[in-house]
Design a protein that fits this description.
The N and C termini lie far apart (81 Å). The radius of gyration is 33 Å and the shape is elongated. The protein is mainly α and 183 residues long. The protein contains six helices and three strands.
Length: 183
């Protein structure tokens, strides 16, 4: 029997566990202990494999493990506390307000892009070179993007409790920016 026993360090390395965890499993009866600081090699491997199988079957069958459920609860409470702190700092916004703000940004962008051909066509027509037309188009697009970048976006629920706040530019009305292309 002495030949098949191994020191704690060897068992820990073989099972890819810390020495402390091997000792814990020994106290729990998962890994049989041969003598002080030494463990039966075959028994340790079999015991640990059996332990892992039991853990896996419990996880698949949905049997609640108190320690696991408690850890989930603690994690969930910590997440809620972090979100509340971020909300108070102003670093976390409600999803519906963010969606409303993006909807308003995209509506403004769409409206601005749809008006570009009407603004640029007469100017491009007068250009005599491709490079001049390209430069004119790029300058007009840059101007439109700069204008959009400076517009304040405010998306908060209105007093009636409906989404779509802001400056009334039509973010809440899907038909407000629909042009000739019906999109």
């Amino acid at each position: 029997m002495a030949a098949s026993t191994q020191p704690l360090a060897v068992i820990a390395k073989l099972l890819d566990l810390s020495e402390r965890r091997v000792q814990q499993l020994g106290r729990e009866g998962v890994i049989p202990k041969a003598e002080r600081g030494r463990y039966d090699l075959v028994g340790a491997v079999r015991g640990y494999v059996r332990y892992l199988r039991d853990q896996a079957s419990r996880a698949q069958s949905g049997v609640a493990d108190f320690a696991t459920e408690r850890a989930r609860l603690v994690r969930a409470k910590a997440d809620l506390a972090e979100m509340e702190a971020a909300k108070r700092r102003g670093a976390l916004l409600p999803a519906d307000q963010v969606e409303d703000a993006w909807r308003e940004v995209l509506a403004r962008l769409r409206a601005r892009l749809l008006e570009l051909p009407d603004r640029i066509a007469p100017l491009v027509h007068e250009e005599t070179t491709i490079a001049g037309a390209r430069s004119l188009i790029r300058a007009t697009i840059a101007e439109a993007l700069a204008e959009l970048a400076t517009l304040p976006i405010v998306a908060a629920p209105d007093p009636a409790g409906q989404a779509g706040g802001g400056d009334g530019a039509g973010a809440g009305d899907p038909d407000a920016t629909a042009g000739d292309d019906d999109q």
